[in-house]
Amino acid sequence: MSQARFQFHGELNDFLPRGKRFTTIDYPFNWRASIKDMIESHGIPHCEVDVIVVNGHCVDFGYLVCDADQIQVYPSMASAPLHPTLRLRPLYPGRPRFILDIHLGRLAAYLRMIGFDSLWRNDYEDPELARVAHDEQRILLSRDIGLLKRSLVTYGYFVRHIYPRERIREIIQRFDLSRHMEPFKHCMKCNGMLRPVAKPSLVARLPQEIFHLYDDFHICTSCERIYWKGSHYRRMVGLIEELAAV
Ligand SMILES: [Zn+2]
To answer: Is the pLDDT of residue 215 over 80?
Structure first.
């Protein structure tokens, strides 16, 4: 029987049983396995891993684990000044764009509210989520570890928190979004782009009191939902100011 010694760093410990966190783990094996498979057998999706060091050298996911290997596994270190060849994948290019699993509808609406292109549908199947994330180079946000383990997923993240307000703060911090917020650019309902719309054209579509009370209106170019600066808008502005300070 061969044995490798693993040490998982930082937030990767979130995936381990309590007794195995922030310690070394001896892992016996008697088969030839890639390091990717061995890491995922600990419950850690590959997309959460940024750097792997074996016996002092960086390796990629295809590395076959050998007897007595000393393995250090690191989470995302986007802000660390690492040489690109040391990372398992290039840093995410440009402004983050997301796709979210079925459990994260409220989080999708919040991300759209602060200006991030975020796909969500309540009928996405797992293979489609992984394929769209891959084809459109989107970050897959999920509460499903099995989904995040799919090999098509390059950029993915397991959402830790339970409540939507905590989740949006978590994602803002994790992806450093506060500097790039552009509120009210996307429709919260469908992710379409918003554009200003002339008030007279809405006379037949709005309740009279709304039409008379407000002057600035936006419309979604996809679903044609109309937005105005009512009490809901003011509550959102308060929340956005809070989130910008995260
Ligand atoms: Zn819309």
So the answer is: yes
Indicate the pTM of the whole model. 0.92
Q: Tell me how far the alpha carbon of residue 114 lies from the centroid of ligand 1, in angstroms.
A: 15
d(CA 15, CA 195): 42
- Whole-number Å distance, alpha carbon 227 to ligand 1 midpoint, is 10
Please calculate the CA angle 143-243-142 and round it to the nearest 5 degrees. Answer: 10
Task: Report how far ligand 1's centroid is from the alpha carbon of 192 (Å).
Answer: 5
Asked if 110 and 71 count as a contact pair (C-beta separation under 8 A), the reply is no
Cα 191 to middle of ligand 1, angstroms = 6
Instruction: Give the C-alpha separation, 210 to 214, whole Å.
Output: 6
Residue 85 has pLDDT above 80, yes or no: yes
The whole-angstrom separation of Cα 202 and Cα 199 is: 6
Q: What average pLDDT does the structure give for the chain?
A: 94
